[in-house]
Automatic annotation (TrEMBL), chain A:
Domain PCI, first and last residues per copy: 211-397
Protein name: PCI domain-containing protein
Organism, as annotated: Chara braunii
GO biological process, one term: ethylene-activated signaling pathway
Single GO term (MF): RNA binding
InterPro entries according to UniProt: Csn12-like (IPR045114), PCI_dom (IPR000717), WH-like_DNA-bd_sf (IPR036388)
A single cellular component GO annotation: transcription export complex 2
Automatic annotation (TrEMBL), chain B:
Organism of derivation: Chara braunii (Braun's stonewort)
Taxonomic lineage: Eukaryota, Viridiplantae, Streptophyta, Charophyceae, Charales
Protein name (database record): 26S proteasome complex subunit SEM1
Region Disordered, residue ranges: 1-45
Signal sequence extent: none
GO biological process: double-strand break repair via homologous recombination; mRNA export from nucleus; proteasome assembly
InterPro entries per record: DSS1_SEM1 (IPR007834)
GO CC annotation, single: nucleus
Described purpose of this protein according to its UniProt entry: Component of the 26S proteasome, a multiprotein complex involved in the ATP-dependent degradation of ubiquitinated proteins.
PANTHER family listed in its UniProt record: 26 PROTEASOME COMPLEX SUBUNIT DSS1, 26S PROTEASOME COMPLEX SUBUNIT SEM1
Principal cellular location given in the protein's record: nucleus
Keyword Nucleus: yes
Amino acid sequence: MAGELNRIIMAFANAVEAKDGGKVAEFLQISKSQRIRERVGLILDRNPKIDLSHFCSIVDTAIITIGEALAVHFRAMQAYQRGCFVDAYTLLTQSSQAFLSEFRNQETMWPLDCIKVLVYDLRMVATRADKELAMQGKLPEKLTDAGRRMMSAFSTLTGTKAKRGATLSITCQLFKVYFKLNTVNLCRHLINTMEKPNFYDFNLWPASERVTYNYYTGRLEVLNDNFEMANKKLSYALAHCHRSHRSNIRIILMYLVPVKASTGVLPSYELLKAYHLYEYIDVVRAIRSGDVRLLKKALLRHEDRFLKAGVYLVLEKLETVVYRQIIKRIYLIQKQRDADKAHLLKLDVIHKAFKWLSVDIDFEEVECIMSTLIYKGYVKGYISHKNKVVVLKKEPAGGTSKDGPFPAIGANM
Amino acid sequence: MAAGDATESAQPAAETARVDVFEDDDEFEEFENEDWDEQEGEKEAVAQWEDDWDDDDVNDDFAQQLRAELDRVAES
């Protein structure tokens, strides 16, 4: 058994000697793969008196001292393997700190992959430790702690171009932490650093990190009400996401659908069906038809889910688009009856149509909705308060309603 | 889905049993591969987005119902 441990440590030492960062990183993985963790855990469980520091000291060379860090890291693996995640996290904070300070001081940046693995595990192990703490009725605080450690690792790697290679990976991991902890304002510092001119050529990052970065910054733009930027970022994430990763595509779409809908671009029914976004089917139908009641129903029915995902406010804004649509269709039907008078829309007729759709509002509110639509550029025309009528812009001969009172939805953005 | 919705407000326990979007673990997942050739990604089989839906057509079911209602209002 001890012989097997020795073989693992020798293989690790050889990878360090060869400066094979990818290989060394494989030995350090705690949560992603169980290959090393399981074996190390078993050996240490069966040999409780083993002098691990002594075994690991053979890793140390003139240029790198990580033997003791490895010993502690193995103990973290053992604790994780036993299901003691709080212990595993505490040990990992010690080992990762020692590893990171050695890794970042290497002459060449061969340990970049190792740094990524350690930062990833800080988040993953902290998350499991917090679950354990919560189950014991204690305060789950490890993820907050991990966030601080990850941020400090990030800060030490922004200096020279060579070291920056791990910064986007750490940024993505920190986005996940901050979104989970509801402290998204902390993302700002990371974005400011990553988007500094000449920091790093964005196209040179691995696709996984580019997609993840654009997904999270896109969601931040949604929160900031900046739909144009949100559309750009989320569309990038969608276009570059690995096609076989369907659950990530679906999550991107969860945010992209309402954002695009607000600019007048709707997902096809097939797209919603393909990614099981059934919650959006009625929302989209309501936008197409102008059925205000259907939108309200859909919002109410999935309220908790929409709120949790943080898209409720975006969807609520689509109400204006649906109002535009019902007004437009009243106009079109009126036009079929009497083209000459179609541009005169009685507030009373609109009021009654709303009532028919169970939208229980009084006459003044109808006027208010109409002024909002006109103010926001969804409808062209003016309200004649005295005559209680909306006077719409006339369609030019041979034109459509888009050339007249109802410009394209995205046109006013 | 329908059955789940009916008991939704009455039983908070049913929350965890729901298998649908907007779940708790609805987190953006790690990618298996770090990098991939984006040219290789096969084109989506389904039509994705429509920007020409907003036409002047008023013949669908909802528009027909609306027309009937507007007729009723005009007559009264």
